[in-house]
Amino acid sequence: xxxxxxxxxxxxxxxxxxxxxxxxxxxxxxxxxxxxxxxxxxxxxxxxxxxxxxxxxxxxxxxxxxxxxxxxxxxxxxxxxxxxxxxxxxxxxxxxxxxxxxxxxxxxxxxxxxxxxxxxxxxxxxxxxxxxxxxxxxxxxxxxxxxxxxxxxxxxxxxxxxxxxxxxxxxxxxxxxxxxxxxxxxxxxxxxxxxxxxxxxxxxxxxxxxxxxxxxxxxxxxxxxxxxxxxxxxxxxxxxxxxxxxxxxxxxxxxxxxxxxxxxxxxxxxxxxxxxxxxxxxxxxxxxxxxxxxxxxxx
Length: 299
Ligand SMILES: [Zn+2]
Known about the structure:
Elements: H1 2-21, H2 27-37, H3 50-65, E1 69-70, E2 76-83, E3 86-97, E4 102-112, E5 117-119, E6 122-124, H4 127-146, E7 151-158, H5 166-173, E8 182-188, E9 198-202, H6 208-215, E10 224-227, H7 244-249, E11 254-258, H8 277-295
Parallel strand pairs: 4-7, 4-8, 8-11, 9-10
Antiparallel strand pairs: 1-3, 2-3, 3-7, 5-6, 9-11
The protein binds zinc ion.
């Protein structure tokens, strides 16, 4: 009888371990959000255009469906700026999930929802850049519904990244929570396609705990993390290539997730049809897995 009980406990333990290791979200929805946001209807989501407003409404609606509360009174943080001699109005979207163990320390998870708009009559749909990051954040929100994080999380959908990291720059100057309570920015920008099944992480070098957490993630033929593009490996330096740069300028550690540039990068062919669905699903799984490990550390 004792042996049976031990066996029962062991099997149960194995089952719950296996369950713990899959990070559940609806992968059909993951793809669907990218397909919608990068469709012609959204006209390339250029800051201040009708298409960008539609994308903003879409994201806010999804956050409401997932019961993600706003960081401030509403989900929207409007701002204005001048870029290339032109006045723009942008809107960041900010949601909050309270942490269970360390609610007064924050991890900001981010992606930008704006893209290049229409040029010479061609729509730049920005499926990989960065509808993929936006949809990954909605997968995070879905995951957090059943698995609340230990640290508080701010889900920041930034506007006007393509016009010079404007939304994230405005955000770090107007953070709503104290700047020093933000312990990490995890920024996703282009995470849905790579011919080698590789996803880069920039920002981990020099932080042993983050490096170890990344090395602990399982690699396979279908997916692996690579660390680099941080100015130390002879490759293009991505330290300021996207919104994580605004956090880094304020001295906040960051981890940036992004694929190597591809032939459709900043071209009208960055379309939904050209993303790699299986790679993308694994990328989001693995980023959530890494988040869980980092969230369990002292930040
Ligand atoms: Zn981008």
